[in-house]
Amino acid sequence: MSTLYTRRRLLALGSVAVSAALLAGCGFRLRREGTLTSLPPLSLEGDTSTSLARELDSLLTRQGTDVTPGAPWRVTLGTPVVENRSLGSEGRANRDHELTMRVTLSVQRRENGAYALNNDIVSTATRIRINEDDLLNRELLLDEAKQTLSRQLAQRIVERLATLEASP
Fold first, then answer.
1. Rounded-to-integer distance, Cα 73 and Cα 69, Å
2. CB contact set of 59 (below 8 Å; sequence gap of 6+)
3. Residue of 133, 121, 126, 128 lying closest to 160 (CA atoms)
4. What is the distance between the alpha carbons of residues 92 and 37, in angstroms, rounded to a whole number?
5. Burial call 45-74: b when 16+ CB within 10 Å, e when fewer
6. The whole model's pTM is what?
7. Phi/psi at 161 (5° precision)
8. CB contact burial 101-127 (16+ within 10 A = b; e otherwise)
9. pLDDT (tens digit, 9 = 90+) per residue, 93-129?
């Protein structure tokens, strides 16, 4: 009886492992296909002097999208806003901070002025732990977190643009 139980258990564990491997492989493939979507030529407008605009321009270029002035689609970025919320009690040296970066985004077809997106808000957030007594490292950690948020937000904007291209 124990041999039969051991075989069944081994077979069940093996099938679970194979299923997990197959599902993980499918999920990876689906994520990769989403990042390779080709977008039409775009022009970045609005507040293009920010780190978010530079990250977005770089990401679009790496993915093979032409980013040129006068392109058929205008992507207008607002000024990114970073909100810093302190979490936890006041008396502690180490505190968690929740940083949220958001930006308004408009996408307009140049030929007829039709908006595919009009002042949509795209946002991302992260949490970091900061020692409030160490002012130098505090600023460095906040700056690194803001750069990370810029990269994440640029990725979210590209994902949003890809869904527009996929829809008729």
1. 10
2. 154, 155, 158
3. 121
4. 47
5. ebeeebbbbebbbebbeeeebebeeebebb
6. 0.72
7. -65, -35
8. bbbbbbbbeeeeeeebbeeeebebeee
9. 677 888 999 999 999 999 999 999 999 999 999 998 8
pLDDT tens per residue across span 20-54:
655 555 554 444 444 446 789 999 999 999 999 99
Q: How high is the pLDDT of residue 49?
A: 93
Residues 151, 148: Cα–Cα separation, whole Å: 5
Task: For residue 90, give the amino acid letter.
Answer: E
CA distance 33 to 26: 11
CA distance from start to end of the chain:
61
